[in-house]
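Collaborator request, handled under Task 6.
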Amino acid sequence: MQDYRLDSALLKDHIEGRRQGEGAMGVCVVTGVGPGNGIAIVNRFARQGYQVAMLARNTERLQAWADAEPNAHAFPTDITSAEQITETFAAIRKQLGPVDVLVHNAGTGTFSSFVDTSPEQLNSALETNVFGLLYCGQESVSDMLAKGSGAVIVTGATASLRGGANFAGFAPAKAAQRSLCQSMARSLGPQGVHVAYLIIDGIIDSERTRRMIPAKTDDDFINPKAIADVVYQLAHQDKSCWTFELDIRPYTENW
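Structure tokens returned to the collaborator:
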């Protein structure tokens, strides 16, 4: 079961480290905001002056972070619902303005063997990783195309490149997500919209993952703030040298 308790260390960093950027940078939408890289990405953009729309299902958690950061705003949403996405983006435009950056961080899947994976489990992964990107991407890109600029950054996983023995309920969805991103990048790039896919190869540091694998050392985890730095950099690359795909991992990772 997913742990919905606030990560105290990240929340403390969120409150103590916040600062206003120099001037308004625009509007950034982050999906799948939770403890770990989700809230770290929100922090990174908010500190640079972006108005950040946080999308996730957990209302209480989002509101706690919105209360702590003036530039972050809670928009509780099920991104697998096309109807909710339409309503949420209409609210974002009304409250904050048109979207400049979309970070699709939402992801889910079942880690199981082929014979143990049900159609419902695979479909759930596809709904979040692929259809969620389709819904949120189309809403965001409509704003970006109108002004000829913008960025869509998607956080992926090693499973998007290869299917492990116990990843039958996860890898197919991530592979489809990566292919969708390639199609997006090829069609939207010439129109001024940068689409990039970030492959995160490793365990993201959080209170939850530390409890799950206590034998691991600090060097075995990916720092969420470091992930957020990479995401921010991708979203602000010069258009003469855009990155489509980038993989990151701890230096101790065996790959």
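The cover message to the collaborator said: "The first strand starts at residue 26 and ends at 31. Residues 1-23 have pLDDT under 50 and may be disordered. Please let us know whether this matches your experimental observations."
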